[in-house]
Specification:
Length: 196
């Protein structure tokens, strides 16, 4: 004889069950399965767990390892477990995280302060540079010996260049060497024949 195939496990729709009797039965089955899985997790991993569940009828069910009260007190911070290595590890981790964050904050604040000081120094240097004139723009009375010698040499080079250019232009016949023509005529002639 052939066996009749069973329906087996079927996927259920995740929605609130409307029928009260079915709701209570499903709650009881799921609650016991949840507590069983929590117990296995405690045994396999050595963790502390507390579960509190309210039934549809308003009854309270709880599971806790080692017990619910100690876990709730520990969670609320009222009563830390005495000499618990896990608690010490958690505190050490928190302190290390806080110390690490504080050192990072201090480093960032120091970098920010150094950047601000650098910016102030650059602003001060820009301000000084804008106030300073080039040495050749200063009044002659304020120039030192070295600066005066440089100015004299520059003027002599300029004088030589102007003399050479006027000689060159006079030979070419393009320029009237009369000292009485206007500045605008000089500029026009210099633009057309630049000094090199």
């Amino acid at each position: 004889m052939a066996k009749k195939p069973s329906i087996g496990r079927q996927k259920i729709k995740i929605a609130k069950i409307e029928i009260k009797n079915h709701l209570q039965v499903t709650f009881s089955k799921r609650r016991s399965g949840l507590f069983k899985k929590a117990s296995e997790l405690c045994t396999l991993c050595g963790v502390e767990i507390s579960i509190i569940v309210f039934s549809p009828a308003g009854k309270v069910f709880s599971f806790g390892h080692p017990n619910v009260d100690s876990i709730v007190d520990q969670f609320l911070g009222r009563n830390p477990p005495p000499n618990s290595t896990t608690h010490h590890l958690i505190d050490a981790h928190r302190k290390a995280s806080v110390q690490d964050l504080n050192s990072q904050l201090t480093q960032v604040l120091n970098e920010l302060e150094a950047g601000r000081k650098r910016g102030e120094t650059l602003d001060h240097m820009r301000k000084l540079a804008s106030q300073r004139k080039y040495w050749w723009e200063k009044p002659i009375d304020e120039l030192g010996l070295n600066e005066l010698e440089q100015l004299r040499d520059s003027i002599e080079v300029l004088k030589k260049n102007v003399t050479n250019q006027t000689d060159k232009l006079s030979v070419e016949g393009n320029v009237n060497l009369s000292p009485f023509f206007s500045v605008s005529e000089w500029l026009i002639r210099l633009r057309s024949n630049p000094i090199r």
